Amino acid sequence: MTSTLSTLPKNKIPSSILHLCIGLLMMLGNLSAQNFKQVNVSYKLNGKDASNTIYIPQYSGEIQPPVRGVMQNVSGPLKSFAHKSQVAMIARLDEGRGFSKALLAAAAKASNQPEIEFAGAIVQGISKGGRAAADWAAANQARAIAVILDHSAIWRMDFPKRVSGVPMYFNATHADLFQNIDRRKSHFGWCAAAFNAKQPCTAVIDITEKGGHGGRGTTTLTAIWLEEVMNFRVPANIPVGRAYKLIDVNPSSVGGYVSAKLSQKGKRTFHDKVKITAKMSGSTWWIPGPKSAAMYLEWVRSNGGSVEKDESDQIKNAPIFLDLPPELRRAAESIEAEKWSQAYAALKKNKNQEDHFAKTLVNKVNTQVEGHLALLDKQKSVGDVYGVYANFQKYSKSYKGIPAYDEVLKSYASFFKAEENKAQLKLGREFHSIINRMNKMKRASEAGLEVLEKFANDHTETVHGKAAKKAFEKISEDSSLKQSAESYYLSIAGQD
């Protein structure tokens, strides 16, 4: 553990990490480019030859974490979710709306990742396909992680089938009535009835204005919902190469709750008088965590509904770890809380350094530290001295105690004391301050632009003046533009 962190590369940092670390995304899936390894699979299905393709998420570092589930090949926010949550994607369904055991066993062998054979599946479908996905989940309850139903018609309250312990998500995407059915209303009624029968279920109305019948609509909320559901349904530390059980989700003991009414404007039904609470009493249905709850409320407002209570930040959602020794549990919890130095300390105390999950946690810490130091190098290379200083001010508590970080922090202590760097730091602070003030305005004011232009003219030969000139040009074209000061330094260096 010590040697790994003390030998971080100083001059050779992967560009994929540099770009991602600008946003300082903390989860493992966001610490490298969203790469997937393509593996072709041949197998027997019902006595006949079959073939398929599986896309396995890849991460930076030597240790690849195990695949925690599979789903249909997707794009956009759902693909980002798959990478972040260690979910492999499969090109074609081969068993109704799901995946056969034969396919997963063959994929495990072809990819040399034995855990895929025992992976659970996220199943989804549009219209009748959503009901077919629920049928597959009902027949394979032990293997179904979650069910996504997009714009599915509900002809009666007992169909689609309820699947105990398996979260279900209804997204009404169509702009108005289709086949003379108000699917928003039917989703509402079905989900409310299912929740009363202890089914973990969420119903939402998409914000797309012209949603069609054949699409998934806006999948951003679907992705966040799935991420939080995975925390409850799939152990974070799944075993490699042997079967394990998914965790039944009990809506009365985990997650949060939605209370809502239905209102209508013309042909469009929308959720109204919505309350998000951490208590189950009086609720209409379930929601898995604070992020999905917060975005759901954004959608409610966008669709014209009102919000009467918002306790989304009180909803608890965190990964579930099974049979972890105390050191690894502390390390995993510290990583989840973005306390990297505490995670490092706990991992150093771990007695079994060869444990696969321990190696995965070590890789998370190493990759995060590499990325953070790469960000500092990037900021320094483009002349954003104040950006480096502010970075230390904001994040040093999270990293102090990790040798590689401490070494860099020590070197910058003398760097900032040098007179020439003090001058650069002062100019950088002034430029950052101007941009921060302008970003708080709904639209840039003439007075704000005058201050920015004057700074650019007063310091034309410096990197700060050039960054200010670039900012002035861009904001003059679009007065509502909001970009960080860092982005303008990158822009003039040709690295935006």
List the helices and strands and how they pair.
Elements: H1 2-6, H2 15-21, E1 35-45, E2 48-58, E3 69-72, H3 76-84, E4 87-90, H4 101-111, E5 121-126, H5 128-139, E6 144-150, E7 168-172, H6 183-196, E8 201-205, H7 220-233, E9 256-265, E10 268-277, E11 285-287, H8 290-302, E12 307-310, H9 326-336, H10 340-349, H11 356-381, H12 385-399, H13 403-417, H14 419-439, H15 446-458, H16 463-477, H17 485-492
Parallel strand pairs: 3-4, 3-5, 5-6, 6-7, 7-8, 10-12
Antiparallel strand pairs: 1-2, 2-4, 9-10, 9-11
Helix pairs in contact: 2-11, 3-7, 7-8, 9-10, 9-11, 10-11, 11-12, 12-13, 12-14, 14-15, 14-16, 15-16, 16-17
What's the short story on this structure?
This protein is of the alpha/beta class and 496 residues long. The protein is built from 17 helices and 12 strands.
Helix content: 40-55%
Beginning-to-end CA distance, first to last residue:
34 Å
Average pLDDT, rounded to a whole number, is 87
User: Strand percentage, roughly?
Assistant: 15-25%
Number of contiguous helices: 17
How would the global form be characterised?
Answer: globular
Low-confidence stretches: 1-32
Report on the architecture of this protein.
The protein contains 17 helices and 12 strands. By secondary structure, it is an alpha/beta fold. It has an 8-stranded mixed sheet with strand order 1-2-4-3-5-6-7-8, sandwiched between helices. A 4-stranded mixed sheet has the order 11-9-10-12, with helices on one face. Strand 3, helix 3 and strand 4 form a beta-alpha-beta unit. Helix 15 runs antiparallel to helix 16. The N terminus is likely disordered.
